[in-house]
Specification:
There is one protein chain. Helices cover 40% and strands 20% of the residues. The protein is α/β, with parallel strands linked by helices and 127 residues long. It has a five-stranded parallel sheet, sandwiched between helices. The longest helix is centred in the first third of the chain and has 17 residues, at 11-27. It is globular.
């Protein structure tokens, strides 16, 4: 039983992390973290380490996973959700214009449609 959070170093990523921790506590589940920003190594980013420091001891944290540089973001999230048998996927989202969604596509929409588990989408203002 796991809550998966897709994290990147942004206000949306921090909001997603805070929401995922709250859900893991509420559901009494473990937490799995997928770092979306490709890393040269597997060192946990300082901003994420700071957020992990305040996770309650009652929440088990799985080893941190990192998206491969060549992997599509939505595919990486869905694949990781399947790999950890996630019961909930938490992602941050920012506002896109209609034209922006059409031209770039929507990672959020793809995750919502393809995820094997329910998805909680969080805006940057989440406390």
């Amino acid at each position: 039983m796991t809550v998966l959070v897709a994290y990147n170093e942004s206000p949306q990523g921090e909001a997603a992390m805070r929401a995922a921790v709250a859900e893991a506590v509420r559901r009494r589940q473990g937490l799995a973290v997928l770092v979306l920003t490709p890393q040269a190594d597997t060192k946990v980013p300082a901003s994420l380490a700071h957020l992990l420091d305040v996770v309650p001891a009652t929440v088990a944290i799985a080893p941190i996973a990192f998206r491969a540089e060549q992997a599509d973001v939505a595919d990486a999230i869905v694949d990781r959700a399947e790999a950890v048998s996630a019961d909930l996927v938490v992602i941050g989202s920012r506002k896109h214009s209609t034209v922006g969604k059409f031209l770039v596509g929507s990672t959020t929409q793809r995750v919502l449609l393809d995820s094997p588990a329910p998805v909680l989408v969080v805006k940057a203002g989440y406390v």
